[in-house]
Structures
1.
Amino acid sequence: MNTKEPVTGSTGTSGNSGTNSEPATSIYAPVTTICAPATPHGVGALALIRMSGPQALEIAGKVFHSSACPDLAQSEGYRTYFGRVNDPAGELLDEVLLSVFRAPHSYTGEDSVEISCHGSLYIQDALLRTLVENGAVMAGPGEFSQRAFMNGKMDLAQAEAVADLIASENRTSHKLAMDQMRGVFSQELSVLRSRLLELASLMELELDFSDEDVEFADKQELRSLVDSLLVRIGKLCDSFSMGNAMKKGVPVAIAGLVNSGKSTLLNALLGEEKALVTPVAGTTRDTIEDVLVLDGIPFRFIDTAGLRHIGEVDEMSQEHVEKLGVKRSLETIRSAAVLMLVLDASRPETYTESLQSVAVFKNEHILFIINKIDLVCNIDVTLAGFMNTLCNTYVTLCKSNAVIIPVSASKGVGIEDIKNTLVAKIRPDLDRNAIILTNLRHYQELRAAGEALQRVREGLDARLSTDLLTPDLRQALHHIGSITGEITPDDILGEIFGRFCIGK
């Protein structure tokens, strides 16, 4: 069990991180020096080989030769040298740049070197083999970041953000990862935990002096604190669905009756023929999806099967396949963050059925897409007729935030209006949350902490004694501390860092 209190150092991802004059404290004393490529496997112009550990400079000095630095072990940090490296046979392998980072001012908190060589696979493999033959060992997945965590250069939440940063594919997910890596989330948790620790210590004192009948902890203050913590934890947990959407794309369900133009609309939004479009009604039998980034926000558009009522059918029949498609469409609508209900402007008699078919959607974000406006003579009359049907048929959907957009998907009319509206609906959700959870482990730990605090709150209301409250309070502290790594089982650390790429 790791129970260290990490020392906050630099949280940068480059080798020149760290500016503190005092060395980072650590309970971790590495006995090995690790090496690994820090660039993807394959041929490129350049490749980067990293090495970190107590013998990093000594090993590098055996294979690197430069007139500018005859003795690499004596080099200062933050220095880059041009020189040559030899292969295991002693033959010239490549001309390289070698950068030196001295402990504790490195990414890992250890003496480190980074060797920039040409991107030949042969050169990379030969260089790594040479380093290993001189005493280094190949690093496991995430071992550099794990050493950074163990040496107090970052807490566990920040370390996990490194992996999210590497995997970020859009501006929003990049920003979320950068905020977490800079410690925004960790600072929030630190405040929560410190307040809990203060009150927990007072409650422990009461247990120590139970014979004296002395009350150190103000129960009213504790009740107020628990309430405020529950509110904050609740907001953080609520933000997880948005954070998860930022990683995978905000789910936008495109629903409607058969032959309303859903697939044509999907193709128009994506700018490519993603979905098959035919004159035959019910061509789409299953969900089709793709991601489109709009103003830095990823949206995952899901084209669903056409909605219609299908009764009891034989499992081997064509209708059974369609029924399964409709069932999956309804499941997609339920889980979507945004619903785009597509209606055929040329068939106003279908408006009522269309609205009734999406009664399962409970989210406030809904767009009514009046498609095929090129087939109607008077769009104003069409829109007025739809509004009347909406108000009469499904009052709960007739809200101020319900948006009606007339389009012609086949002609490309109104597509930009849809994109702008989607961004306008989701952007406030992002701006409203200063901190957004993106990590499932963090969400689970916060949920568990919230449940423990809820039990404390119920115990306070029931006027339970201090000795009955402290176990749940300790549980809340444990779960919050597990997020940043103050208290983290070693097997959990292995699982977390095992997901990292080699060389990070």
2.
Amino acid sequence: MAQADALSPNAATPSSAPSGDADPLRARLSRILEGSDFPALSRQIIDTLGAMDDDAASLQRLANVVLREYSLTLSVVRTANSVHYRRGARPIQSATHAMMMLGARTVRQLAGSLLLFENYARKSPELKELMLLSLLTANHARATALRMQLQDPEEAHLCGMFRNLGEVIIAAHFPEDYRQVKALMADGGLNEAAATKRVLGFQFNDMGVEVSRHWGMPDSVVQGIRARATASASMQAAITAFSHDLTQALYKTELTPTELAQAVESVVEQHGAKVKMSREQIGGVVTDALEETRELFVNPAIATDRLRFRQLAGAARSALGDSVTASTGEPGEADVAAREIALRPTLRQELEDMVNPASGAAIGAVLLQALEVIMRGGPFAHVLACFYSTDRLQLAARTGLGEGADALIDQFNFPVSVRGGAVVALTQQRQPVYLPADRAMTTAEQRWAQTHGLTQFGVFPLIVLGKVVGCLYVDRASDAPLPDRATVRFVKSVADLVVDAIGRRRNG
């Protein structure tokens, strides 16, 4: 039972047989919705995939989702640099820049996929393995869509990621039942449909459809969950089914090289009416999917144990030969902070390009990218852009990034007076300062920092044409080291670019 508890907090009272309810699916779904962790995930998914315009406010909210997870930051940047989306000769490193290029819809689809992955991949080795297969299916789908020149490869990725949603949900929230289903398939000789019907009273896909509808997923996702190899299927559904079957053939069971080749040939034959690709092209799809998946695991939050990249690449090569060129090694856990610091010059250059009004970037977009450059290049926990009101009686945060940034923005509304506190006082001093690196905090500054649970923070006044218009605010987690002088100078240089952007647009 300890194993079951490790999978999910909802696993304490699993049901090992079909419920007596008239609708066992609805009964199970109700139990999941009433659990402790599922509602939070649902809120994230719904908020991320909900209707958003490509305006500055929407991009800020979406940027907070993207930048909170390093793996998602990498995925957005990589997607923008793909042949399908790339418009310039120089690679993009800024996630904000990438988001503006891709558009909110595409980024939401990426975020929705990876939120699901991040949530369940951390819970247990069993779920990590299952989510790895879902991610491979998603990456197979995107690579296939690109080769077949579909207009929306990220929708294909979303459909692929959620193809096995029902199985993931059952494995996470009813682990004992899930193991019973697998035992009936392995030892009892039942297929998945028969085994799930006996244990659950419904099939995995039925649960996947219900949850995807609960989350407000596009119709294409629902169709993808039920998709099979039929000539009548839409192209998106056909690619989802093909990608799922390709993943299952290559990685789900231990097969000999001959059996692997036969399994792939069977997939090609079943889907050939809709998905027309050569073995070499399929090898390219598999290579791209493996490399995309490996890159995700530079995220230190996801351990690389049991991911079996060597076995996965080896299995693919056994089935498809030398057309599969993916690496066979395990991904290393990169030092994320060091990697981001090394990108400071590149990120700053991208911001500098946007500062020029000729770039067409609105000041809100410039601000958002500046905040990203500071947060990643610092790195910092929170970065806010604060400005005086028109009457100069209030100093308020306009936009910000970091965990809980929206709540912090609501708190950053200070009267411009002695009652305004540390941020107002430091802004009015017109000099950048990071405390306590530059000097010891005053009693008032200590009191303000304690109120916000901080041991360090910085204020960088924005002075346009000799007039203070606001500030950039930064902080780090209490247990983080103080920034060195190079980091403080870097933040000051970004603040100078923001001042330049504001001044040039006012003059223009």
